[in-house]
Amino acid sequence: MALLLWLGSQLSTYWNGISILGIFLTVFTLLFDFMKRRKKWNHYPPGPTSLPFIGTMLHIDFRNPHLSFNQLRKKFGNVFHLQNCWTNVVVLNGYKTVKEALVHRSEDFADRPYTPVYEHLGYGSKSEGIAIARYGHVWKELRKFTLSTLRNFGMGKKSLEKRVTEEAGFLCSAVGSEEGRPFDPRFLVNNAVCNVICTTIYGERFDYGDKTFKRLLHLFEKFLNEETGFLPQLLNVVPILLRIPGVPQKVFRGQKEFMDFIDVLVHKHMESWNPAHIRDFTDAFLKEMQKGKVAEENGFNYNNLRLVTADLFGAGSETTSTTLRWAFLYMLLHPEIQNKVQAEIDKVIGRERSPTMEDQVNMPYTNAVIHEVQRYGDVIPLGLPHMTYRDIEFQGFFIPKGTTVITNLTSVLKDEAVWEKPNQFYPEHFLDVNGQFVKREAFMPFSAGRRVCLGEQLARMELFIFFTTLLQKFTFVLPEDQPRPREDGYFAFSRSPYPYLLRAVPR
Ligand code: HEM
Questions:
Q1: What CATH code is carried by the domain that includes residue 136?
Q2: What are the TM regions of this chain, as residue ranges (predicted)?
């Protein structure tokens, strides 16, 4: 009996010890969390109430973040804050605010947040690619090199225009071979656009229907889907979870496979590389890597080669092909606009000659339609995340250095204070009373400032040549037995139309 009593008292002391420790740990953790989330600055932007540990993450629908932001903007104004666990985020909304940040305070907002979820792909302090690289010397060198090399390989020149025209011809043949039957244009358009960037980076184009290429596109789609939703956001802000064995491999399987694919393309180059004969962007990068220590310091290493080419492939294919798919969808939904574009093509180019970039100035209506596709299609609704490069005062608020900044491009492209009919497809947004094309400052699908899209010139050329070539040869109509396609889009980093079928009737 005495033994039992003794055991009982030992146990209760033990449990008391555990519960005291438990209480202490809980209080400590809550306090630590509170300190991490506490805003010790005056005039920090307003925002929704932040909960322990998860901050304001429950306020965001990560499958449609731009819609959540539009709601929060109504409540808190053009500059509001969010809290992704312990990461401070500020969201900028509306043309005036976004322009002030990206254009007038360009360097203040030029940094990018570190993105731990890409570490398993080789991203790290010595190799960050371009698109998500921290602002600084290495990013500047890589961006400069990439722009000048793309120009050497024809960006903004006749030589690349010829390549795009040739690819548009292949696309027309493939569309023609559908013989007016209903088909989903997605794969063909993707293939055509990817071929342009693939020839520039890897010196290769793939035939439509090529199995390897289908796999590459499928992997890239998986790549984008794996970036969307709550889990990747959580892993980014609580990177310790990525250390759990198997987590990155399981969550980002498609991304890993996509990079393995890029590795194969790069290795093939390394085997046949000849410094006297630079065939493409990859060869030019390999040449730069040979320049020794200085080149190494400027970021020219193997990991960066795979990341930069993956950046160009990723940024350069999905965005442009999605825009074209929006363009064809709007032509289906607005046949009267399609007729007007075709009338202008017939008048300026005719039915035989291939369109060239010089035609653009004589085609204000078509140009306005393409701009309106980009505005209304709103393909990158939130741009890429930025980060403040230093402590700043902005529109009466204090935003500390290292704050993640989201530029809500949707709120610019559909700003009610700027556009006459922000939520309608209305090409007249880009036409004056005489039917001449007018530039609009709030047209920012490529963003603006130091981190503005590096491929804007190429993208504009592709959009014009592909769009006019196809409408010169075909009229797009809705298949009779199909429901009217949805006009809203789905979000997976980019905003794409839901799959739809069309019939391409030869003209
Ligand atoms: C319609 C087509 C395109 C759209 C709408 C688009 C849009 C964008 C946007 C919104 C950004 C983020 C800018 C920022 O952070 O503020 C961006 C960045 C970028 N884009 Fe594009 N883009 C398109 C086509 C292309 C093409 C064809 C290429 C490649 C040749 C490309 C390469 C890049 C790169 C490398 C960046 C990162 C720039 C940096 O961080 O310095 N894009 N693009």
A1: 1.10.630.10
A2: 12-32
The best mutation among 91, 92, 102, 319 to test binding of ligand 1, ranked by most ligand atoms within 8 Å of the C-beta, falls on: 319
Tell me the residue range of the domain where 336 lies: 39-506
Give domain status of residue 19, yes or no.
no
Alpha-carbon distance of 62 to 492, in angstroms, equals 9
198 is annotated as contributing to ligand binding: no
Q: What is the 3-state secondary structure (H, E, C) of 65-117?
A: HHHHHHHHHHHHCCEEEEEECCEEEEEECCHHHHHHHHHHCCHHHCECCCCHH
Is residue 16 domain-resident?
Answer: no
Burial 159-197 (b: 16+ CB within 10 A, else e): ebbebbbbbbebbbebbeeeeeebbebbbbbbbbbbbbb
**In this predicted model, what pLDDT tens digit does every residue of 35-65 receive, in sequence order?**
776 777 789 999 999 888 888 988 888 888 8
Pocket of ligand 1 (CB under 6 A): 130-131, 143, 197, 311-312, 315-316, 319-320, 323, 379-380, 383-384, 445-447, 451-455, 458-459
- pTM (global) more than 0.90: yes
The closest-lying atom of ligand 1 relative to the alpha carbon of residue 322 is: 1
Q: Minimal CA–CA distance to 160: which of 495, 464, 504?
A: 464
Total domain count, the chain: 1
188: in domain: yes
DSSP helix, strand, coil percent of the chain (3-state; round to 5): 55, 10, 35
Which atom number of ligand 1 is nearest to the Cα of residue 384? Answer: 15
SS3 383: coil
**pLDDT for 11 beyond 70:** no
Q: Which atom of ligand 1 approaches the CA of 102 most closely?
A: 16
Is 77's pLDDT higher than 70? yes
Backbone angles phi, psi at 61, to 5 degrees: -90, 100
Rounded to the nearest 5°, which phi and psi values hold at 44? -75, 145
pLDDT at res. 172 = 97
Radius of gyration of the chain measured on its C-alpha atoms: 26
pLDDT band with cut points at 50, 70 and 90 for residue 86: confident
At what angle are helices 186-202 and 281-289 packed, to 10 degrees?
A: 30
* Cβ neighbourhood burial of 11 (10 Å; 0-12, 13-18, 19+): exposed
Residues 6+ apart with CB under 8 A from 491: 63, 64, 65, 66, 228, 381
In a domain, 88, yes or no: yes
Secondary structure (3-state) at 290: coil
